Amino acid sequence: MKAQCRTTGAAVRNLSSILSLLAMVTLGLVMTATAQDMSHHHMDMNADPTAESEITQDWAKAKLAKSPRHHEWVKVKNGDREVNCFIVYPEVNKKATAVVVIHEIFGMSDWVQQMTDELAEAGYMAIAPDLLSGMGPNKGGTSDVATQGNNAVGQAIRALPPDQIAGDLNAVADYVSKLPAANGKVAAGGFCWGGSTTFFFATRRPTLKAAFVFYGSAPNDNAQGTPYTVDKAAAGKIGAPVYGFYAENDMRIDATVPPTVDAMKELKKMYDPVTYAGAGHGFMRAGEPNNPPPAAAAAGADEAAVKKAANDQTMYKANRKAHDDAWARWMAILAKL
Questions:
Q1: What percent of the chain is predicted at pLDDT more than 70?
Q2: What is the 3-state secondary structure of the chain?
Q3: What CATH number has the domain spanning 40-335?
Q4: Is the pLDDT of residue 157 over 60?
Q5: What is the reported pTM?
Q6: What would the pLDDT profile of 96-118 be if each residue is shown by its tens digit?
């Protein structure tokens, strides 16, 4: 009887081991399939998943309202799609170079429109497409998608098919290059998710005059959760010089820069990254001069509150300097195109 019990117990343990092994294999296959599916996107689709309140910036809206330049919304056709775009014309006496402005993961925000106006103020024809055009419940763009919940915009942007993104951006670049006031030269610049998308766009439009990547990464071909590797097949198609703008306190993105330098050097592609001391991710918006500074600590605040207020002020100053230095660099490069 004891021998039979021992035999039965061993069989149960063996069966349990087999079932555990099968479960581990199944889980591994699922994770591999998921990672492979994620890698098909070939760019950073998870950038800056912050609150959707970033869509609205009253300080940016107020500045834009005072602009004397001509603004308009236009619909650009990409096959069956219509891409809603915000375009601003510079007040100049000659045909202008165009800049396609690629928004953050927050979609078509007030700040993106203000940045588009600032580029026009500097003498460039600037156009910002809402890449969520037609993706809302009422076939609208960013503001329509936002009605679906606090994280709806970020989720919708991460789900955009890369081919659709490339098609939209190419259609917009074609449109703006052919306007009577344009000189035919087109550059692209984007921020955060838009920075990664700018790098990606450069792989799909070799005729770009320049790609300005603000705290974004190059297209990658690694599985999710594995060390970052540049998609050299994609990067090899880049025809434009790529200029990178990075923050010192942004290791999530900064860690991708050295392998990108190596890959672009191997491919004999021009890549010029600059990292700004003390700045944090998103410094072009956070350091915008029109963006109100953080509040000082209240009278009688405890030590923790005082320390936080001091840190916020330090970061704001670093972001302001990074913004100003990056803007000067951007304008100097654009002037030479």
A1: 84
A2: CHHHHHHHHHHHHHHHHHHHHHHHHHHHHHHHHHHHHHHCCCCCCCCCCCCHHHHCCHHHHHHHHCCCCEEEEEEEEECCEEEEEEEEECCCCCCEEEEEEECCCCCCCHHHHHHHHHHHHCCCEEEEECCCCCCCCCCCCHHHHHCCCCCHHHHHHHCCCHHHHHHHHHHHHHHHHCCCCEEEEEEEEEECHHHHHHHHHHHHCCCCCCEEEECCCCCECCCCCCCCCECHHHHCCCCCCEEEEEEEECHHHHCCHHHHHHHHHHCCCCEEEEEEEEEECCHHHHCCCCCCCCCCCCCCCCHHHHHHHHHHHHHHHHHHHHHHHHHHHHHHHHHCC
A3: 3.40.50.1820
A4: yes
A5: 0.85
A6: 999 999 999 999 999 999 999 99
Dihedral Cα 216, 220, 222, 224, nearest 10 deg: 40
Alpha-carbon dihedral sign for residues 253, 259, 264, 267: negative
Residue 76: per-residue pLDDT: 98
d(CA 25, CA 27): 5
pLDDT at residue 289 tops 80: yes
Residue 219 contacts residue 231 (beta carbons within 8 Å): yes
Identify the CA nearest to 101 among candidates 193, 187, 218. 187
Where are the chain's structural domains? 40-335
Structure tokens at 184: 């035919």
Query: Which pLDDT band holds residue 48 (cuts at 50, 70, 90)?
Result: very low
Between these two residues, 183 and 51, which has the higher pLDDT value? 183
Q: Indicate the average pLDDT of the chain.
A: 87
Give the mean pLDDT of 216-240. Answer: 96
Question: What phi, psi does 298 have (nearest 5°)?
Answer: -70, 155
Give the amino acid at 2: K
Q: What is the pLDDT of residue 53?
A: 55
